[in-house]
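W.,

You were right to be curious about this one. When I first looked at the sequence I had no strong expectations either way, so I just let the prediction run and decided to look at it fresh. Below is the sequence, 109 residues in total, followed by the output.
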Amino acid sequence: MNHRKVVQGYYGDVNNLTDLLSKLINSYRLLIGGAGELNTIALARKKDVKDAIDRANELGDIIDELIDALDQCSCEYSNYCRIKGEILKTKIHAKYILTEIDEELKLKE
């Protein structure tokens, strides 16, 4: 496997983690909302409200772990992009990029 595929796979993993984080946060909000609604019901038992809050807290712990993992992953990917950008600056001359842009604009007209 070449280096580019490894980095693309890594980027895909970061995207998957952010997608999972988004879904878990939505679930967390629903759990909190459900516990709040349950708390307003007069016939609800105190134990049921406590259990609902505990479930939300457990999911909150999972979300915290996922955020930590994403912090580590995204920092590494950001470093990769920064290094790649620096290398591109030294290797590619601005006039070549301008020529490519001009040619692309001419093709669209």
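Here's what jumped out at me. The CA atoms of residues 14 and 71 lie 10 Å apart. And, maybe more interesting for your project: The chain has one domain: 3-108.

Coffee later to discuss?

I.
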